[in-house]
Design a protein that fits this description.
Helix content is 37%, strand content 24%. It has nine helices and 14 strands. The strands form three sheets. Strands 1, 2, 3, 4, 5, 6, 7, 10, 11 and 12 form a ten-stranded mixed beta sheet that branches. Helix 7 runs parallel beside helix 9.
């Protein structure tokens, strides 16, 4: 790992029963020589003491072991609080099921150096299809409350960046400035997982910061390593549908997007009908639970880190 007296970047990796993926990610980070960084490994209550095993394999990381699974939002917030307390200038959220290229962090920093830029995202390619885009950032449809992924599954050589300023960045990999963090606050832990990055990005932009695409920064993503496990109702877990539905409705409520309700409720009803026809009753139940909680669960304001 890179190590100098002047370390400005804290890279936060959240591990939850994903030892092999996290090991590969850390091995790729060992090839990143500049700029200097510190890896903050947050283990979210993994089995078999995975956090301690990874610390033994990579002694230079700073390990924070949570007793329970706090989700993507809660786990990253633990790491962000530590990074802010230690005085880091920038925080990089990085999925543990990614591998990076040696120059990715330099390119992200160059993007973040632009005036009023609070977040920078790289181009993210599929690990199993390394010439095809997984994400080139996001566009936000404020009329219907739709978070649209740019470049989704487009071959890299055919993709033309429409604009270097994004509406939202994916939590898979986003470099965030200290100033943006202090202004906008932490990830909203009510989301647990899914759409928390969209909500955070919109809040950062509301604070007067822009979100940039570092088009020369490249990483590779396994895409859903934690959520794709074969079971009786297919590959995706019912909890994925539950969080997707619930958190989409959270977004509509937070932004008072009235026209979004009929649009998304029609989508979710069509999912329910499909699962009913296919006999996927766990997923059907997850969708209806997501609708119920998304519409009626009280929304708490995000927690802010205080100086």
């Amino acid at each position: 790992m890179a190590s100098t007296p002047e370390i400005s970047v804290a890279i936060i990796l959240v591990n939850w029963n994903g030892y092999a993926y996290t090991q590969a990610c850390l091995e790729s980070l060992e090839k990143v020589k500049e700029p200097a960084f510190q890896v903050v490994l947050v283990d979210n209550g993994s089995q078999n003491s995975e956090g301690e095993q990874l610390k033994a394999r990579f002694p230079q990381v700073h390990l924070i072991a949570n007793p329970d699974n706090l989700g993507f939002a809660g786990g990253n917030n633990v790491g962000i609080r530590y990074a802010l307390e230690q005085g880091f200038d920038q925080v990089l959220l990085l999925n543990n099921d990614t591998t990076v290229t040696p120059s990715f962090l330099q390119e992200l920093q160059a993007c973040l150096d632009q005036p009023r830029c609070g977040v920078a995202q790289p181009l993210i390619l599929f690990a199993h299809e390394p010439h095809k885009l997984w994400s080139a950032g996001g566009k936000w449809n404020s009329l219907f409350g739709r978070a649209i992924t740019l470049g989704d599954r487009v071959p890299l050589e055919k993709y033309r960046v429409p604009a270097k300023t994004l509406d939202w960045a994916t939590g898979c990999c986003m470099l965030v400035s200290r100033a943006a963090l202090l202004e906008a606050g932490l990830l909203n832990e009510a989301y647990f997982a899914y759409f928390e990055d969209v909500e955070w990005s919109l809040r950062i932009r509301k604070g007067g910061f822009t979100i940039g695409l570092a088009e020369n920064a490249i990483i590779y993503h396994e895409a859903g390593a934690a959520s794709k496990k074969q079971h009786s109702e297919g590959t995706l877990s019912p909890r994925v549908f539950y969080f997707h539905v619930r958190n989409q409705l959270f977004l509509l409520r937070q932004h008072s997007l009235v026209l979004g309700y009929p649009y998304h409720l029609l989508r979710f009803s069509s999912w329910g009908a499909y699962f009913l026809i296919r006999g996927r009753f766990q997923k059907l139940s997850a969708v209806w639970q997501g609708i119920r909680e998304g519409l009626f669960t009280p929304l708490n304001s995000e927690k802010k880190w205080l100086q």
